[in-house]
Design brief:
The protein has about 130 residues and is mostly helical. The chain has a single domain, classed as Arc Repressor Mutant, subunit A. A hairpin with a 4-residue loop joins strand 1 and strand 2. The N and C termini lie far apart (about 65 Å).
Amino acid sequence: MKKQKVSVKKAKQVRRSVCPISNTLDILGDKWTLLVVRDMFLGKKTYGEFLDSPEGIPTNILAERLKRLEQHGIIDKSPYQKTPVRYAYQLTPKGEQLADVIKAIITWGLENIPGTRAAMMDRENRQRLR
């Protein structure tokens, strides 16, 4: 008996409400996603560079977060190596708009959580957060 190939379409995500906070949290509201975005503002571009972050994101979660950010138009990827294919990731203009969110979280953390400090970044990436 020949098996039929079944096409499974991904169901559209149902929004819980029209609240912009709720909808933003559905995209960015876990403990890893904004750290990946932060790393992009710090100049990281490759999968390996993201894995080197001190928080130690698991590989399966990193892969899923990069895919989600790309699906939502927050990042783009482009191949930098053919065999095996490896990608570099960068923020889109939509992703760059998260600079104020990242700055606000940094400021709040520095002011309210003792012992925190801002990560070092080069001049170009500091400019992106101004």
